Amino acid sequence: MILSLIALIVAITIHEYSHARAADYLGDPTPKLQGRLTLNPRAHLDIYGSLIFLFLLISGSPIIFGWGKPVVFDPFNLRQPRRDAALISIAGPISNLSFAFICSLMLRLVFLLGPMSIFISAFIAPLLQSLIVVNVVLAIFNLIPIHPLDGFKIVEGFLPKEQAIEWHSLERFGYIFLILLIFPIFGSIAPLNLLISPVINFVLKVFLPGIPLV
C-alpha cells in the first residue's frame, strides 16, 4: 500500500508537470502563473482522483482509473492552438512511459548486480515495479480518446480542420462515454477493461518480463 501510494504520487506529479512544462515551452504562461511548473506533488494531486486510483489498484480491481489536478492552458497564447494543445496533452502520457522505461532499466540493473541486500529486495525492487505499473496504467488510460482524457485532444490536434470541428462537438458527451466504459453496464466486464488491459499487459511484458500482469 505504501509503495503504491508513493508510485501514484510520483506518476501523477510527473504527468501533470509535463503538461505544464509543455504549455510553458509552447508559449502559454498560464501553468507557470498558477504554480504548476513544479515537481511538488501538492500542486498536482487531486484528492478524489488519487484515492480512487489507489483503492482500485491495491484492491486488485480489473478496472483501474484515476486523475490528477488538470493543467489549465490558454489556447490563445499558443501559436498553433490545435496542434500545440495536442502536444501539451501527449506530453503527460509520454513522460509516464519514459519514466517507466527508465525504472525498467534500473530494475534490470538491480537484478544484474547479483545477490541483493535485504533493503534492495524488500523496498527498492518492489518500488521500481510499482512505479512501472502505475506509470504505464496512468499513461495508457489517459490515451483513451474521450474527453476529458488526453487522448481526446491528441486526436483533435492531428485531424484536418473540418473533421477536428466535428470531433470537438463530441466533447460534451465525454463523461457519458467514460461512465459507459468504466462501469460494467452491459455485462460482467467493464468495456474499459477489455479496451486497455491488452495494451497495458503488452507494455508491461516489455518493461517487466516475468512479472505477473495486471
From TrEMBL:
<feature type="transmembrane region" description="Helical">
    <location>
        <begin position="173"/>
        <end position="196"/>
    </location>
</feature>
<feature type="transmembrane region" description="Helical">
    <location>
        <begin position="86"/>
        <end position="111"/>
    </location>
</feature>
<dbReference type="InterPro" id="IPR044537">
    <property type="entry name" value="Rip2-like"/>
</dbReference>
<dbReference type="GO" id="GO:0006508">
    <property type="term" value="P:proteolysis"/>
</dbReference>
<keyword id="KW-0862">Zinc</keyword>
<dbReference type="InterPro" id="IPR052348">
    <property type="entry name" value="Metallopeptidase_M50B"/>
</dbReference>
<keyword id="KW-0378">Hydrolase</keyword>
<protein>
    <submittedName>
        <fullName>Peptidase</fullName>
    </submittedName>
</protein>
<keyword id="KW-0472">Membrane</keyword>
<dbReference type="InterPro" id="IPR008915">
    <property type="entry name" value="Peptidase_M50"/>
</dbReference>
<keyword id="KW-1003">Cell membrane</keyword>
<keyword id="KW-0479">Metal-binding</keyword>
<keyword id="KW-0482">Metalloprotease</keyword>
<keyword id="KW-1133">Transmembrane helix</keyword>
<keyword id="KW-0812">Transmembrane</keyword>
<dbReference type="GO" id="GO:0008237">
    <property type="term" value="F:metallopeptidase activity"/>
</dbReference>
<dbReference type="GO" id="GO:0005886">
    <property type="term" value="C:plasma membrane"/>
</dbReference>
<keyword id="KW-0645">Protease</keyword>
<feature type="domain" description="Peptidase M50">
    <location>
        <begin position="123"/>
        <end position="160"/>
    </location>
</feature>
<feature type="transmembrane region" description="Helical">
    <location>
        <begin position="117"/>
        <end position="144"/>
    </location>
</feature>
<feature type="transmembrane region" description="Helical">
    <location>
        <begin position="46"/>
        <end position="65"/>
    </location>
</feature>
<comment type="similarity">
    <text>Belongs to the peptidase M50B family.</text>
</comment>
<dbReference type="GO" id="GO:0046872">
    <property type="term" value="F:metal ion binding"/>
</dbReference>
<dbReference type="Pfam" id="PF02163">
    <property type="entry name" value="Peptidase_M50"/>
</dbReference>
